[in-house]
TrEMBL record:
Csd3-like second N-terminal domain: residues covered: 161-277
Official protein name in the record: Membrane proteins related to metalloendopeptidases
Keywords: Hydrolase, Metal-binding, Metalloprotease, Protease, Zinc
Domain M23ase beta-sheet core: residue ranges: 290-386
Cofactor(s) the record lists: Zn(2+)
Localization per Swiss-Prot or TrEMBL: Cell envelope
Main location: other
GO cellular component terms, A-Z: cell envelope
Species of the source: uncultured gamma proteobacterium HF0010_16J05
InterPro entries hit by this protein: Cell_wall_metabolism_enzyme, Csd3_N2, Dup_hybrid_motif, M23ase_b-sheet_dom
One function term, GO molecular function aspect: metalloendopeptidase activity
Length: 429
């Protein structure tokens, strides 16, 4: 199995840590690092054998074949591009009938088309949709054949660390972690940490993740392979693992699923306008009334997520709650969502929903002073604080699969540990 190569700074870090381990005797039993990890090999695929190079500029003069390159402009159609480059509508029709020809139905400005032709006859059309994907159509004995060519980027394992002083996003930006991986980091730990309520200055995170390179250029980011989040002094660690059934997910180093039956918060990265409070002055009625839930203030239209799998007990509207949804999660648990601007697609009484599914959107219907979600969590009919209630766990790695899990995740766990030791050492200097 091929594994991504390591970023240079990660190799230096690991090498230093191995020396540190050798001198200090850190670790015991099977977790002791006694030698360098198994060789790490880059995963980089070149053009498939016999495929046309989408970036070829010209062939040898002996072939007398020329190349014309055209970029899709606003308002272009494939027919207009063929016409302005002098190629026949008949060839276009034949190409569009190939097995991958349907990809030419929707073309977008900036996409690249390359025509290889000889004495006015089209030999090969290459349609490049991005750096990694091209569709190649070659003239055959009868018409054209079509092929999709996908180049695989090189995956480089790297890391980052940051301490939060105001917000997770600002801390991530300082550390160079892109927004999409910041969101993924929050999603990994969302069952343990309410990223709206629980984040405090001084919290920190360590992330081991993949950078994607093509022809030596950074073009994107892959998966988070391992991460640790320290929230109010409590450490949460997660490693990525693909189960025997093919499900890619995150688990603790002991194989316990990071997922739980309920999300801590049904919206992402909003500010809290009112917390769980049994003696709260109602903002509209101006009377002291128990506030048996949490209000998440967020822009109108912010998606609202089902906190867990269940069935919609009621999706309706009244003068106080506005548009609201009540979801039953088995016999014990009920969640309520009030003041929605509208329901999600297909949401109605009796409908089954899954955890994380969009069930509605933030609004200010009913007795609400501004756009927000009022969220309640009930256990056996009793209102509980959604922030602190003990949540049932989801399925973990099967006992018989644990040896495979340990072997598959060990390298990434050790790399994360090496990184953390390096950060602690540097902070102590």
């Amino acid at each position: 199995m091929q594994i991504p190569r390591l970023h240079r700074r990660l190799i230096v870090l690991l090498g230093g840590f191995l020396i540190f381990v050798g001198l200090s005797g850190l670790g015991d039993g099977s977790d002791t690092i006694t030698s360098t990890p198994e060789p790490v090999v880059a995963t980089f695929k070149t053009d498939p054998q016999g495929a046309i190079d989408p970036d070829a500029k010209e062939l040898t003069s002996e072939s007398a074949t020329s190349e014309t390159v055209d970029m899709v402009k606003a308002g272009d159609s494939l027919a207009s591009i063929f016409n302005r480059n002098g190629f026949s509508a008949k060839d276009l029709h034949t190409i569009s009938q190939t097995n991958v020809g349907k990809q030419l139905k929707d073309i977008f400005p900036g996409h690249r088309l390359s025509f290889l032709h000889h004495e006015g006859q089209l030999k090969t059309l290459t349609y490049k949709t991005d750096r990694l994907t091209s569709y190649v159509f070659q003239r055959a004995d009868k018409g054209f054949s079509g092929e999709k060519i996908e180049f695989q980027p090189e995956k480089v394992v790297t890391y980052t660390h940051s301490t939060i002083d105001s917000s997770l996003f600002l801390a991530s930006q300082r550390a160079g972690l892109p927004d999409n991986l910041t969101m993924r980091l929050a999603q990994i730990f969302q069952w343990d940490i309410d990223f709206v309520l629980d984040i405090r200055p001084g919290d920190e995170f360590f992330v081991l993740y993949e950078e994607l390179y093509f022809e030596g250029e950074l073009i994107g980011y892959g998966d988070i392979l391992a991460a640790e989040f320290v929230n109010q002094g409590k450490r949460y660690e997660a490693v990525q693992y693909v189960t025997e059934t093919g499900r890619k997910d995150y688990f603790t180093p002991a194989g316990v699923s990071m997922r739980k039956a309920f999300l801590r918060a049904p919206v992402e990265f909003s500010r809290i306008s009112s917390r769980f409070n049994m003696r709260r002055l109602h903002p509209v009625r101006k009377t002291v009334r128990p506030h048996r839930g949490i209000d998440y203030a967020a822009p109108r239209g912010t998606p609202i997520l089902a906190a867990g799998d269940g069935r919609i007990q009621k999706a309706s509207r009244n003068s106080a709650n506005g548009n609201y949804i009540i979801i039953s999660h088995g016999q014990q648990f009920v969640t309520k969502y009030l003041h929605l601007s509208k329901f999600g697609r297909g949401i109605k009484t009796g409908k089954k929903v899954t955890q994380g599914q969009i069930i509605g959107y933030v609004g200010s219907t009913g007795l609400a002073t501004g756009p927000h979600l009022h969220y309640e969590f009930l256990v056996n009919g009793v209102h509980m604080n959604p922030r602190t209630v003990a949540l049932p766990k989801a399925q973990s790695v099967a006992q018989r699969e644990l040896p495979l899990f340990a072997k598959a995740t060990r390298q990434h766990s050790l790399l994360l540990k090496a990184f953390q030791q390096q950060v602690v050492y540097m902070a102590a200097q």
